[in-house]
Design brief:
This protein is an alpha+beta fold and 203 residues long. The protein has a single domain, classed as Alpha-ketoglutarate-dependent dioxygenase AlkB-like (Jelly Rolls), CATH 2.60.120. Helices cover 16% and strands 41% of the residues. The protein has 3 helices and 14 strands. The chain has an 8-stranded antiparallel β-sheet. A 4-stranded antiparallel β-sheet has the order 8-13-10-11. It binds 2-oxoglutaric acid and manganese (II) ion. The site of manganese (II) ion (MN) has 3 residues, from loops.
Amino acid sequence: MEDLFSQHQQTITLTKDKGELSCYPDWLNSSESGRFFQLLSKELAWNTETLLMAGKTIQSPRLVAWYGDEGKIYRYSGTSYKALPWHPGLQEIKSKLTSEFNAPINSVLTNLYRNGKDSVGWHADSERELGKQPIIFSLSLGASRYFDYRLKGKSNSKQRIELHAGTLLIMRGDFQQFWEHQVPKQLKITEPRINLTFRFINS
Ligand SMILES: O=C(O)CCC(=O)C(=O)O
Ligand SMILES: [Mn+2]
């Protein structure tokens, strides 16, 4: 089978060990990423997510919204979310991804980090409905933020990259089995960032 990524000369492979993480800087140019940021920050159904932590429920330190094909259900941290119908802006990005990478996508989890106080803690995208070797396309818009990743259980393996507006990050193969990732707080950042994680779920 032809490698999905062989045609993308500008893809930077960050790790091929225990799954693959690759990065495609400037996948969208600045006018496209600016247009999508404006549109999606205004029009998506942003809400806090309820997380179950050590038996207590807390509100996520970021806003999220969940879109996808009809009937798709996403279970996360003790709560089920029914996908909202595709927003035209998300549909447009999804079409560009499916035509360039020939990958199946049926949903997208969207995150809005209102400023540097918002974050997502260490986790892997390993919910059962994603399957064992999910391919996840993660597009960043708005403010630049750090993205850290480390081998599970090995805090000294931490690596850091910075994700800028228009950067596409692709996680695939065994990446979610062996690695975890986070977007740490960066208290000096006052500007918002949107991250879109396009996925294929079997549920
Ligand atoms: O904001 C990011 O870059 C990562 C978001 C993330 O890890 C997730 O939605 O699972
Ligand atoms: Mn994630």
